[in-house]
């Protein structure tokens, strides 16, 4: 390529980025011979394409015309909200003389029954469960119950108590009518969760993670309008997730490491949750297009380790507040939508171990906060100079793909076999749609060395993939 034509290519490229144009992403099957004949990428990183004639045509005007948004899913009627608490209650230690106690007989009765059922109590909780003032019991927290104006048991925290025995969650909690916060992770609670948990008028934090719960999703939770925190991780729940889950006004949905099945309901778009992990279940089907509606709230989302299929909806590109997006270890396919270049805050992107193919959009590699982008173990075919820059910086991992000329790629035969089958996605035209002005960063602002990177805080959702430990 002559210096002039190289310059021209770069000018065309830059002006297209300015106008939101990105490479065509339709991929035609390649034969082994074609793959073998493909020239190696040039050593200098300034030539973005495998050959000059593959450089993009001038921006089509249609780039700016976006299709209609996916329809919003219906919301479901919820029960009327219970009386509101004054802000978010923090459990506080009991006053020494609490005066009359709310539901005293009921709380004392069930506490003694639980105590009899606990066969192992390594941290000596039950030793303190004596006398009539339950506010002094280890693990119990009291405060004024708003609609009674007397002291009551508002929080139970047995996180990490390591109780062993046959502990029946539902039977226990229905004797605690004033409860707001119930944290019992890593104990041996089990038992069905029956419908009228919503009789618990103030319930807003439920952490049942890492216990022995099984059966279908505890639909009765849905009636608990106050919940802000749903943590059911590390149990053996199974079956579908009810669509109503995503209508709850919660901040956190952690349901990873269970056996949930079937598709992700399209109500997913209704959830205002900031942190969501559906990881390590057996969900099938595609990521719902309604994810568009999560754009104003969603910060971290993990879909990893399921059986998701289909192509990535371009609506994901609207998630410009998200820091973490992980769909690794699924059965997803298709190209990366060019809209991914709009995910302005993306730090941790993981698409590894799927069947994605096509060129990696340069706009993705120009995201200003890119920290760890893992695209390995797919069938991607091209990287341009910006992506090569990220590879050199150790920010982008493209190992085990079909990018000829790069080290650590798949065997050409494996690639040819993959591309010998025609592969298509529904709505192929959407892969080149860009709902923002690209690039988000100009080349001169891009970091050239590791020193520009500061380590972002560890994602909360990744921490949720570890069993809770205390
Ligand atoms: C260059 O790319 C064009 C279009 O993709 C293709 O038709 C042509 O064969 C390529 N040339 C070489 C030398 O690979
Ligand atoms: C619990 O109490 C027993 C004796 O009552 C004592 O030996 C043990 O160290 C205590 N354990 C803890 C964790 O306090
Ligand atoms: C709650 O009870 C205290 C005395 O126990 C009383 O002074 C106060 O006015 C009561 N508040 C309400 C809202 O009833
Ligand atoms: C946990 O609870 C189950 C019943 O739900 C019981 O069979 C099992 O023995 C308990 N495990 C321990 C370690 O106590
Ligand atoms: C205690 O154990 C009995 C017998 O297994 C069981 O029926 C009951 O539900 C348990 N109660 C609690 C609070 O765990
Ligand atoms: C996200 O996109 C919206 C328009 O959809 C825009 O108004 C907003 O400034 C963008 N935020 C960031 C952080 O880029
Ligand atoms: C990037 O993320 C992947 C997948 O989570 C992880 O295996 C890898 O260690 C991370 N790399 C760095 C440099 O943090």
TrEMBL record:
This is Leucine-rich repeat-containing N-terminal plant-type domain-containing protein. The keyword Ribonucleoprotein does not apply. Gene3D superfamilies: Ribonuclease Inhibitor (3.80.10.10). It is found in: Secreted. It comes from Dillenia turbinata. It holds the Pfam family LRR_1. Keywords: Repeat, Secreted, Signal. Residues 70-104, 447-470 are annotated as: Disordered.
């Amino acid at each position: 390529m002559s210096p002039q034509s190289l310059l021209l290519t770069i000018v065309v490229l830059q002006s297209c980025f300015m106008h939101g144009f990105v490479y065509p992403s339709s991929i035609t099957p390649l034969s082994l011979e074609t793959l073998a004949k493909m020239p190696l990428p040039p050593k200098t990183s300034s030539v973005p394409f495998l050959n000059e004639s593959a450089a993009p045509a001038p921006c089509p005007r249609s780039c700016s015309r976006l299709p209609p948004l996916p329809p919003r899913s219906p919301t479901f009627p919820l029960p009327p909200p219970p009386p509101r608490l004054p802000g978010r209650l923090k459990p506080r230690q009991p006053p020494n003389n609490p005066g009359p106690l709310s539901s005293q007989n009921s709380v004392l009765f069930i506490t003694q029954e639980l105590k009899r059922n606990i066969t192992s109590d390594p941290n000596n909780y039950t030793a303190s469960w004596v006398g009539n003032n339950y506010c002094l019991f280890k693990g119990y927290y009291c405060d004024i119950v708003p609609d009674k104006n007397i002291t009551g048991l508002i929080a139970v925290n047995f996180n990490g108590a390591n109780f062993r025995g046959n502990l029946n969650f539902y039977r226990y909690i229905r004797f605690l009518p004033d409860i707001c916060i119930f944290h019992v992770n890593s104990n041996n609670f089990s038992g069905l969760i029956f419908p009228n948990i919503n009789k618990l008028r103030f319930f807003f934090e439920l952490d049942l993670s890492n216990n022995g719960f099984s059966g279908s999703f505890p639909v009765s939770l849905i009636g608990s309008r106050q919940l802000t925190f749903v943590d059911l991780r590390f149990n053996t729940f199974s079956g579908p997730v009810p669509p109503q889950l995503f209508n709850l006004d919660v901040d956190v949905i952690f349901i990873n490491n269970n056996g949930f099945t079937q598709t992700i309901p399209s109500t997913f778009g209704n959830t205002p949750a900031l942190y969501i992990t559906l990881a390590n279940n057996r969900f099938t089907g595609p990521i719902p297009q309604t994810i568009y509606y999560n754009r104003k709230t969603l910060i971290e989302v993990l879909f990893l380790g399921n059986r998701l299929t289909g192509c990535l909806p371009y609506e994901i590109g609207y998630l410009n507040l998200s820091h973490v997006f992980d769909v690794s270890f699924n059965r997803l396919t298709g190209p990366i939508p060019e809209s991914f270049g709009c995910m302005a805050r993306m730090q941790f992107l993981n698409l590894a171990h799927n069947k994605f193919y096509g060129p990696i959009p340069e706009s993705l590699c120009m995201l200003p906060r890119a920290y760890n982008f893992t695209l390995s173990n797919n069938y991607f075919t091209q990287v341009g100079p910006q992506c090569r820059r990220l590879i050199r910086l150790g920010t982008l991992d493209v190992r085990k793909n079909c990018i000829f000329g790069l080290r650590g790629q798949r065997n050409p035969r494996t690639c040819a076999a993959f591309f010998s089958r025609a592969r298509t996605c529904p709505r192929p035209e959407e892969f080149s749609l860009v709902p923002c002005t690209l690039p988000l960063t100009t080349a001169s602002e891009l970091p050239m060395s590791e020193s520009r990177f500061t380590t972002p805080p560890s994602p909360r959702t990744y921490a949720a993939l570890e069993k809770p430990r205390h």
